[in-house]
Here is the input.
Amino acid sequence: MRCVIARFPFDLTKSGVLESMKGVKPEPVVGESVIIGRRTYPVKQVGQVITRQDRRDFSAGEVLRAMTQLGFTCRGLPRAAVPMHVLSPLQQASAMLGIPVTV
Here is the structure.
């Protein structure tokens, strides 16, 4: 499949990406990720390995689009947990002191 990453055209195949990532140790994932084989890699690490370019030269979206088109499972940013009820400063102080908080 032909795709453009950082204004450069690349001919990528699923088997070629698998071969390129073979033996590469995944870095800790803090944002978007791609599952390649049985490992989860950060998108920017995958882009750097397959394009041999600096991570600052391309966006995560470009690599996510290419990996999705090749059939890899991609995960976006994790959603932040939304608190069900926000405590007032008085309720928060009471909770810190061990006094039961009424909601």
Summary: The mean pLDDT is 87. Residues 18 and 37 are 7 Å apart (CA to CA). The radius of gyration is 21 Å. The chain is about 35% helix and 20% strand.
